[in-house]
Specification:
The complex is a heterodimer. Chain A has helices at about 60-65, 90-95, 115-120, 130-140, 155-170, 185-200, 215-220, 240, 245-250, 255-260; strands at about 20-30, 35-45, 50-55, 75-80, 85, 100, 175-180, 205-210, 225-230, 230-235. In chain A, strand 4 (about 75-80) and strand 5 (about 85) form a beta hairpin. The N and C termini of chain A lie far apart (about 60 Å). In chain A, strands 6-7-8-3-9-10 form a six-stranded mixed β-sheet, with helices on both faces. A four-stranded antiparallel β-sheet of chain A has the order 2-1-4-5, covered by helices on one side. Chain A has a single domain (about 20-260), classed as P-loop containing nucleotide triphosphate hydrolases (Rossmann fold, 3-Layer(aba) Sandwich). Chain A is about 35% helix and about 25% strand. Chain A is built from ten helices and ten strands. In chain A, helix 3 (about 115-120) packs across helix 4. Chain B has a two-stranded antiparallel sheet with strand order 1-2. Chain B has a domain at about 20-250. By secondary structure, chain B is mostly helical. Chain B has 18 helices and two strands. The chains are: A alpha/beta, B mainly alpha. At the A-B interface, helix 2, helix 3 and helix 5 of A face helix 8, helix 9 and helix 10 of B.
């Protein structure tokens, strides 16, 4: 069986240097000569909702892809709960407790919603009955019970996004990476998404969220990291970031930045 | 209780079949059907459920067949040991093959499996000191009667259906289908996709290899052209899967029945109908027609695939409701 749990040896530091719950240190990704992400560092505390913003192509999704090892890192390291997770395979990172959703949703189309979530719930279930029970609870949590016997390909976009979240939650993550969960939703669905994300946080899951809809990111984030061209341009509370000159410049151009 | 009655009745019919039909020709056809159920089920696991299209079932089939034949020929061990060991040998071939070629996805993987079966065929042809090359290997049949072979084949067919049925209801099945639907999503759900694809391929290789071992024992003669054949084994396996119904437990069983029937129908020129027709009419060109029809069975396979994909994309079992409706509709029309 390849089911073994890798335990990466703790760095023998007797001084017990303070460790963040989740920490990215100088993560860098080159695609050929292009630095998609260049030396980005940030820390996320347990229980936080950490927002990641930036213009199109600034490298937000790439950061997610680096965290869950969809791409290998060029440089840098990522630590979660004090252990290094960079260098592990995608499925191992998921087992460590880092779940993610995809911006371009990836429903398992020819499976029902329930089966989608069951497949995910098997990760921490010993029997099928346990997986089914877990999946049903997760589906109820995400308010998808109505659709549970429908094929995933027949769902509208809002429910597909919820299914993505349900599938990620069924793996019982401690840290959840949400990639544009509210994109493409109408205003009332956006409200629903915000409520769901807050419900997830209340259940004790730490969240890193990428979002373009400012209403979402400003209302729910505790802290925001703004990036552009793969580099950090600002970090702080939502208000600080919203009034930051380089953030306004990145989004609206230098003229607006100068006026404000 | 009710959901079990169908398969149980079918099994009873299959057990009673050789007593009801004493004609050894039909018994022979049924043995082939049962053998193809095993191969089709194996193909269905890796290609239907896991979505990794296997274009080279012959590689595993031939490995199983040659294992049985070589054990007898070189080591003087009963070829019956070759039946289980044939399955094991196929798995041993599948493991390194899968580890290397599962880096590829979709059609690229399919092409590599095709290459594997061709490589195996060439090895069997060229390595004459071991395999006798194109001369082939003769294995004395153990029994004259077809009954023992029939029941061994039946046991194999039942085993393969049970393996598939149990696998797809469990964790394995969910993981296989997740991998088929989206490999990246599956990986992010904590599924070790390489490991589970290897499991799927190994199970498939086991079933196909067992069928190969049975083939050697039953037919008594193998050569590289027959057991590593692209169209008679690899393509046939795909057809059994597609015609019966991809990713359905009983699809390969139905597919095997239909495909062996179709193959035999064409090979014998409509069960001798064409020969009889030629004789009675005395038209000279009918001899040529008969010859081409029996040689064109590979072509007819292609046509069959086109028709099935057009009208029954999920196979006979997968689109059973549709088939039933069509049949009922026809009946009403004629009445």
């Amino acid at each position: 069986m390849c089911e073994e749990n890798y335990t990466v040896p703790e760095t023998g530091n007797s001084l017990r240097r303070y460790m963040a719950y989740f920490e990215a240190r100088g993560i860098t990704k080159f695609f050929g000569g292009l630095a998609a992400v260049n030396g980005v560092s940030f820390k996320v505390e347990q229980g936080q909702i950490y927002g990641l913003i930036g213009p199109n192509g600034s490298g937000k999704t790439t950061i997610f892809n680096l965290i869950n090892a969809y791409f290998p890192l060029t440089k840098g390291s990522i630590r979660f709960e004090g252990k290094r997770i960079s260098g592990l395979k995608t499925y191992q990172i998921c087992r460590r407790g880092v779940g993610r959703t995809f911006q371009v949703v990836k429903p398992l189309k020819r499976m029902t919603v329930l089966d989608n979530v069951i497949a995910s719930a098997f990760l921490h279930a010993d029997s099928k009955a346990e997986a089914v029970e877990e999946a049903k609870a997760t589906i109820e949590f995400c308010e998808l019970t109505l659709y549970q016997d429908k094929l995933a390909k027949s769902l509208p976009i809002a429910s597909r996004k919820r299914l993505e979240i349900a599938r990620a939650l069924a793996t019982k993550p401690k840290l959840l990476l949400l990639d544009e969960t509210a994109a493409g939703l109408n205003p009332s669905e956006v409200e629903g998404a915000i409520a769901l994300i807050q419900k997830i946080r209340e259940s004790g899951v730490t969240i890193i969220i990428v979002e373009h809809i400012m209403k979402v990111i400003m209302t729910i984030s505790d802290k925001i990291l703004a990036i552009n061209h793969g580099m950090v341009i600002a970090e702080g509370s939502p208000e600080e970031v919203a009034s930051n000159h380089s953030v306004i410049a990145a989004y609206l151009g230098e003229d607006y930045s100068a006026q404000s | 209780m009710k959901q079990f009655s169908g398969p149980v009745i079918l099994l009873a019919i299959l057990i009673a079949f050789p007593w009801a039909v004493q004609d050894s020709y039909y018994q022979h056809l049924m043995i082939l059907v049962l053998m193809w159920i095993a191969i089709g089920s194996g193909w269905n696991l890796i290609s239907g459920y896991t979505g990794q299209v296997l274009f080279g079932a012959a590689a595993f089939f031939g490995t199983g067949a040659y294992t049985a034949a070589l054990l007898l020929n070189k080591l003087d061990i009963s070829a019956w040991w070759g039946l289980p060991l044939g399955g094991v040998a196929a798995v041993i071939l599948a493991l390194p093959f899968g580890w290397i070629s599962f880096r590829l996805r979709g059609p690229y993987f399919a092409l590599v499996t095709l290459a594997l079966s061709e490589i195996m065929r060439h090895i069997a042809t060229i390595w004459e000191s071991l395999t006798e090359g194109m001369v082939g290997i003769l294995v004395m049949q153990t029994w004259v009667s077809k009954l023992p072979y029939y029941y061994i084949a039946l046991a194999l067919a039942v085993l393969s259906i049970v393996i598939v049925d149990v696998a797809v209801r469990s964790r394995l099945g969910y993981y296989f289908v997740s991998i088929r639907e989206d490999q990246d999503a599956a990986e992010s759900m904590g599924i070790n996709t390489l490991y589970y694809r290897m499991v799927s391929l190994s199970l498939a290789a086991l079933l196909i290899g067992l069928a190969g071992g049975l083939y050697t024992n039953y037919m008594g003669f193998i050569d590289p052209k027959v057991v590593f054949s692209l169209h008679d084994v690899s393509i046939m396996a795909i057809l059994v899967g597609i015609v019966g119904g991809v990713s359905t437990v009983y699809g390969p069983a139905v597919g095997a029945f239909i495909m062996v029937l179709v193959q035999e129908l064409i090979r014998t020129g409509g069960f001798g109908f064409l020969a009889w027709f030629t004789k009675t009419t005395g038209w000279p060109f009918m001899t040529t027609v008969t010859k081409y029809v029996s040689e064109a069975h590979v072509l007819s396979f292609g046509l069959l695939v086109v028709l099935v994909i057009l009208y029954l994309p999920n196979g006979v079992v997968g689109d059973w409701l549709c088939v039933k409706k069509t049949i009922l509709f026809r009946k009403r029309e004629t009445a």
